[in-house]
Design goal:
This protein is α+β, with helices and mostly antiparallel strands. It has helices spanning 2-11, 41-51, 92-97, 113-122, and strands spanning 28-37, 55-56, 60-62, 67-73, 78-84, 102-110, 133-134, 140-144, 154-158. It has a single domain (25-158), classed as 2,3-Dihydroxybiphenyl 1,2-Dioxygenase, domain 1 (Roll). Strand 4 and strand 5 form a beta hairpin. The N and C termini lie far apart (54 Å). Bound molecules: cobalt (II) ion.
Length: 159
């Protein structure tokens, strides 16, 4: 009787767990930005500022990251326009493959980046660097391997 009942319960179980998420040492937060690599920073800035009427920052050289950035501010998040700076820019290859530009990465906020890296590695999600670096906002960031994230380069930022 009991065995039949438990079989019945199991057969009705949902294909996902309905149990509460276990307590974690770290948490994922807001979508901080979506980054778009562009082949013409001026034209891209004009699209967001003059055509869409969004508020944009001045272009900022980020020599440590090999890019110029322009931030477009929205009510709920930002778009980061990326343009190559210097010869070894990490987005140079991306623009060769995508000459008209394209979505480069998404950035998610986490409250503890080191704990996040440790826990993601346990789930076979590889960081591109073992240690966080200081990102374009002066905060620790790390990029996760696109092959481990559904084909999308994911940046985590401690915020
Ligand atoms: Co970014």
């Amino acid at each position: 009787m009991l065995a039949r009942f438990s079989r019945l319960l199991r057969s009705r179980s949902l294909p996902f767990s309905t149990q509460s998420v276990p307590e974690r040492l770290w948490k994922v937060g807001r979508l901080n930005h979506v980054a778009i690599a562009v082949s013409n920073l001026d034209e891209a800035t004009k699209l967001y500022r003059d055509v869409l009427g969004a508020q944009v920052s001045d272009p900022m050289p980020q020599p440590d990251h090999g890019v110029y950035t322009v931030f477009v501010n929205f009510e709920n998040t930002k778009i980061e326009l990326l343009y190559p700076l210097g010869e070894k820019s990490p987005i140079e290859k991306f623009l060769q493959k995508n000459p008209s530009g394209g979505m480069h990465h998404v950035c998610l906020e986490v409250n503890d980046i080191k704990a996040a890296i440790e826990s993601l590695q346990k789930h076979n999600v590889r960081p591109l660097n073992p240690e966080p670096k200081i990102g374009a906002h002066g905060k620790p960031v790390v990029f996760l391997h696109p092959k481990d994230c559904n084909g999308v380069l994911v940046e985590l930022e401690e915020a």
